[in-house]
Each structure stands twice: as C-alpha cells, then as structure tokens.
Amino acid sequence: MSDAPATPAKKTNRIGLELAQYRGSKTTLCAGCGHNAITERIIDAFYEMGVDAKKVIKLSGIGCSSKSPAYFMSQAHGFNSVHGRMPSVATGALLANKTMLAIGVSGDGDTGAIGAGQFMHTMRRNLPLIYIVEDNGCYGLTKGQFSPTADQGSKAKNGVVNELPPLDLCALAIELGATFVARSFSGDKKQLLSVLKAAIAHKGTALIDVISPCVTFNDHEGSTKSYAYVKDHDDILGEVTFIPYFEDLTVDYEAGGTTNVKMHDGSHLYLRKIAEDYNPSDKMAALKLLHETALRGEFATGVFYVQPDAEDFLTSLNTVDTPLAFLTQDQVRPPKAVLDQLMEGLK
Amino acid sequence: MSVVNDFTIQVATVNGSGSNTANLVLLRSIFQMGVPVSGKNLFPSNIAGLPTWFTIRANHRGYIARKKEIDLLVAMNAETAREDVLSLEPGCTVVYDEPLKLSALRDDLAFFPVPYDKIVAEVCPDAKLRKLVKNMIYDGVLAFLLSIDLAEMEKALDKQLGKKPKAMALNWGALQAGHKYASEHFKPSEKYKVERLNKTAGKILVEGNAAAAMGCLFGGVTVVAWYPITPSSSLPETVISYLRKYRMDPKTGKATFAVVQAEDEIAAIGMVIGASWAGGRAMTSTSGPGVSLMSEFSGLAYYAEVPAVVFNVQRVGPSTGLPTRTAQADILSTAVNSHGDTKHPLLLPGSVEECYEMAMASFDLSERLQTIVYVMSDLDLGMNMWMSNAFTYPTKAIDRGKVLDEAKVRELGASWGRYKDVDGDGIPWRSLPDTKAPAYFTRGSGHNEMAAYSERPEDYKNNLDRLARKFETAKSLVPQPVVDVVTGAKVGIIGYGSSDFAIQESRDQLREQHGLTTSYLRLRAYPFTAELDDFIRRHERVYLVEQNRDAQMLSLILIDGDRTESAKIRSVLHYSGMPIDARSVTDGILAKERA
Fold it and tell me: Rounded to two decimals, what is the model's pTM?
C-alpha cells in the first residue's frame, strides 16, 4: 500500500474545466481598479455556468474598460475594436455566427458619449449580447475628464465640477428595448456574480451598468463614483439569486416578497424585496424606480427589468441553423440556371 | 440627309411624373430592333417637381457613352422647355406638348406639336391616372416618327408591365393613340430613322448596381449591412431582392444570408468587419460621404487584417455635393482611407459586366488578402442603363483565403502566430471563432506576430513592413489592366472606370477625324502592376483621362509608380458632374497635342 498522500482532485465545473482555464492575460489596469474586480466576476460567472469558452466571443470598444476582454477567457476569440463601435462589430460577428455567446465590454464614455448611437440601436434590436458598461464616470486613459454618466455636481480630481446631468444608461436601455437591464457595483461580488450569470442565461440584449470606481482619477472626496460614495449611496434593491437550470436547488423565499423570473434557458432568477409588488417585466415600474432613486441622490442596484421571452434580433432574421460563416459554396452560390434566368430577363 | 440608327433622344420631364416606364419602353424597343443603345437618367436630388432629363443614345457602331449633342427633344416640362429648345443645334427635331407653343421660338428646327391632354382624356377615363399614362403617348409618336416597330414597343411594354394587365392595357392604349395621332398629323421623320440591325443579339440591358448585386449573389455574400445613400442604395436593395428570391434554403425555407439596415455607415462597416472576422462573407455599399465615415474602421480592417468588401458608388463631392451627379473623385481618399500608414486595394469596374465580375472577385480578394477592398463604381455606371454581353457563370471556386483548418493547425502547431508570415507573401493565417483552431485577440492597437499587445518599435515596424509585402502580393491577385498597344502609336491613353466607353469612342474620333493613332491602357485595380510603368515608358506622350478636378489617379501613380516615367503624363479632366463623353476626351487630348 502506498502511503503517499492522495492528490486532491482539482475543482472543475460541469464541463470539467478548472477556473484557471477561464482566465486571460495579466491585467495592465491600475491596482484596485473596479474593472479588475468585474473581470474576476466574469471569469467566475462563465466558470460557474460551465460555458465553453470556444463558444464565446468577447468584444470591446476603446478605453480602460475595453482593454479588459484580454484579461479573461484566453480561449475565446476577442476583438478590441474602435471607440464607441463595439455594438456594430458584435452585431456583425453574431450575424456570421448566431450560435456564439457574445460578451461586449464598454465604458461610460465608450457607450454614453461616442458610442451613444450604436448603443441605442443595439438595444432597439434586442441583439443577444451581454453588454457590460464598466462605469466610472470619467475617461481614465486620457487622465480623468468627465464622461456623460458623471453626476451633476460631482467633482473631478483637478477640482472642476460637472455641470451637466448624467445619462442613465439603464433607463435608456429599458426605454430603447433591451430585455435584461441591471445595475451593479464592482465591489458587490455576490450581486454582480448573480447578475452576470442571469445575463448569460438570457437570450436578448442584457445591459449591465456596473459602477466601477477609477482609483486613479475618480476616487476622491467630492466624486460621486468613488468607492466611499458608492458604498454609502448604493440602494441595493434586494438580493439577486440566480439558480441555473442545471442546478437542482430550490430557494426558500417569502411569498410576496420575491419575484421568480423564469429565464429563457429554464434557469430561475429570484429578485427579493425590490418593492411590495414590483414587476420586473413592467417598463414603467422600472423607469419610475430608477427615476426616484436618482432623485434621492442614490442609485439603485439589482435587476430592474427582464423580458425573458421577447424575440431576439438573430431569431427574427430566420437564418439557417448552420452559422452563415460555415456555409458551403453550394449553399451560397446559386446554380447556373439562376444566372441564365436573370440574363433572360434582361435581354 | 437621313441618319439611320445614330441619334440621341432627350426626354425632358418633371421628376416624379412617371416617365420612367415610357423611357425604358422606348430604349428597349430600339434595343430589340438590334440597334445598340444606352440610357442615361439625369435627375435632380428631389422626390418630385424638379426637372429631369432622360437621354437615349442609339448608335449603329455600338458607342454607348454619353453624346453631348441632342438630336431629338421630347419637351414635356413647361419649366425647362424654352431653355431646352434654345440650346439645340440647328436641324434638330422637337416633339412637344402643344400648349407650350414652342415652334415660335426658332425656325431652324423641325417641330411636332402633340395635344397630350386631349389624347389622354380619350384613352384614360380615370383623371388621376392621366399624368402617368400621358407619357406613353410620346412613345407612340416617336415610334411613328422614327419608324420603330410597334410590335417591339408592345413587347417592351409587356416586359415592364406584363404582370399588371390593367396598367398594361391602359398604357398600350395610350401608346397606340399617340401613334395614331402622329400618323394622322405628321409624316415620318426624313432625318432620323431606326432600322433593324443585328447588333444586340445575346446582349442585355442592365444598370451597374444591379450587375454588382448579381456579383454579390454569385460571389456568395452572407452578410449585408448598409445605410441608404444615393447613388448606392439600389445596389444593396437589389442584392436583398435577389437574396430573398434565390438564397432561401429549399429544405427549411430559411435564409442563407443576413441583412441589416444599419443606423449609419459607421455601424454598417463595423458590422461588415465583425461579420468577416467571424467568418462571414460580408459587404456594404455606400458613396463618398459614407466612405468618409468609414475611415476609422477602414484603418482597423487594414491593420487588424480583417476582410471587408465596400462598394463606393461615387457621386459628386465634396460634402453633399451633387448627390445625383457622377464623378470619379474619391480615388485618392478611398485608396488611403484612414489615418496612419494605410492603403487599400481598389477595383475599378469599367462596365456593368465588370461590376458583376469585380463584385464577385472582391470577396475572394478581400478574404485572400485579409483586408478591406473597395469596388469603385460611380453613379453613371451604377444607376444608368448599359448594354452589355450577358454575364457568364463563375468557373473559379469561392476562395475563403488562409483560414486555419484542422490540418493546418496540426502542421503549424504551437508555432502559429496570427500575424506571422509563414509563406513569404505577407499574408498570415487567421483562425475563426467556433472552430478547432486556437483563438487570438484582435486589436487595432500595436501587436506582435503572436497578436499580443506590443509597443515595441521592432514589432510595430515588422508588422508594417509585412503589410507592405502583403500589398505587393496584392499586385499578383488584382485584375490586370487591359492594354491595347498599337504599333507605331506615340500617344498612349490611360483611363479607368466609367470613362472607358467615351475613351474607346474618342480613339476612333482621333484616328478617323484627326489622324492620331493611340494606344490605350485601362486600369482595373490599385495597386498598379508592372504593365502600367511599361505602358508609360513605351509612349512618347501619355494622357490620363479622369472624372475629377485634381487628377487623383495621377497622384496615386506618382506616389506608387515609376516617378521619372510618370512625369510625362498629362491629364484630361472632366468634372462637371455629367457623364464623360467622347468629344470632351478628344478635344482635351487635341488641345494638349497642339499646345
């Protein structure tokens, strides 16, 4: 009998992969940057959901946030495109291969300023895309200028006060047609993980605005996107619990205080205590809630709006089951008879 | 002296008055009689109300470029009638709406007044339809005056309206009424006549945009993203109609394509790049303003090496310019569209047939070179009706370029680098998502051979030098110029795109009327190939014909070609917004020959 200690079995997920296999290259963002915490949660969420990275594409625009797809899932194809245009590149990639799970990472400037147009039209189409905005209210790479999500009255590091009201990306997304809209905080590990997992289960545009403090340019007194301010003003709407379809668990919840949303893939999203009779498929209720918390000088976090069964853009295009990328010549070049017929019509 | 099968008819109408069917019936009936024709629609940037002119040229020698001089005017537009008549050369024929009283204006023209309202009231009881049906009357009048076979008119009308029996009957009635009126009041024209020829057998009539759309269809396009703009819109719209008809999977009834009307041209090219990156065969179509907006993404496609096909149906710029007029004035800006050291292959179709062939070729070229390819059409080629040989079915298999398959993955193993030049042609191997090949990270920022982020000077330079090598490789893949070197000719003409038909006709004029024999090289692509420098070297004097003010192709030749030889090139430039004509080319060359 050997007395050598048995090597403990490495922990793997449901498709037999280790957490390490979901990692990417080393981050080059600042130590303490909220974006790195989000990257960690993305890694956890894809690992826990047992997603095959070969079936994932990761896309981004330009900015600190947009660098982060390089830092998770090296086995997935990634595309760091141009400023504000991640949505169009993601749209194209999904048109060519509708079987891929697409995650887009953008920032508040990338989405709210230069990319506002593409953001709006992507929401409108309900493209199946996990659209994460890593939201720090400023432009980090160009040294801290305000972005369109900076709050009115918020102070920049150089003392300049922001005079303009912010865009509420969640309210916009709801209004525009996104079918899963949430806000979270990079520092709230548990909530963010649940939200991300639910977004992975969702089929349609999932817009997640993640407040993610910039430790270098926007973490000081007077900023409304600093760690301290966010912790003080985060109006957590209630526990977000996500139970994937492949986990045989039941949640013990108080009747009346929790909404159970059945996701497209059969998973369950439990939203607790948002309000007495909050209905997350009610657009107006969601908009009212966002507006009221903003008026109180706070921001709500949680999943505000879910429409799990709305038809997504790719489904509406009614393309063949095989990804267009892999169609053969026979499938994409009509026979000579078609050309002959066309020519006859022009004679 | 009578002129048989060699004249130009101009129909002056008001935009939106529904004259299109009448004009196409006239054009087609002459074509059906075996006489070469071309049709040009000179229209305003307007939906209805502004003047528009449709010009039909019939020519027994097969010249299909624009001819400046008008021989027969059909004056339907009260607003322009006076000016239209005053600008005619003596001896021309005018068919006009009787109340306009145009015959008082000049005594050196042949006038044929037609009481359209009276005739149309008799054949069209519904007053609302009269405005549209009225136009058919001039077809009937012209059929009589020019001796066009009425049966051919009926056949041509059937081609336009055959599927709508009511409209067919109504319009045919009006056309016959026009013919009857003319036969009772006029004699056939002694001057102009259509006689049967046999020069259109097997030929087709088609617009360049529709031809390019067929090229996309047979080129195997799978993703179309576009944004409306004149004069491009009819290209993607025709692609879409073909795709819906011919590219539905017969078993499932599902589409083998995806189409998105994007929110702007930036999104359109972004979608094309995203789709091509993921393995689609993707295209977009636009005009100058759209190409300007695509500038940043063009640089990304160049530097990140992603295929993309863009049709630039050029119109007159800068800015909004003249959206419904033609030019070749985006050559330089498109060739280097973006910031940084960037250059893109351009394909230069010179006919509708080449619109078809180059559209097909552009996908193969773009995927083979892993870069953005621009197909440089223009409004004249794209939106006007051209006679052409029937298109031929592709004999070459679709080329998807260097995409890693399982065998190649095994062969290259761990040494594979997305941007590594393993074959010496500057073209690396790429992998697609959702395959067994390894993933990589695509970025427009600095990267090394392994696609990792890099700011190292040697990595940047290596990459840029390899991209230059790749552009050299492109020379062996793009369509070569069409060269006609005439022994003893001292003068060489260089042209490209829609100038071709005018240049061909001009060469005949120069030879027959001015005793000047010329050689001709028609460019069909950028980058330029050795034939160009060779052609310039072989001729004493070289004229480059372009439809822009700044001799843009010449600039490109000076940047890229043999500069000492290129110095002898002189430009013949046409940039009024009107399609180029042979006489302008001839006059331009002669003026410099005599200088």
Answer: 0.97
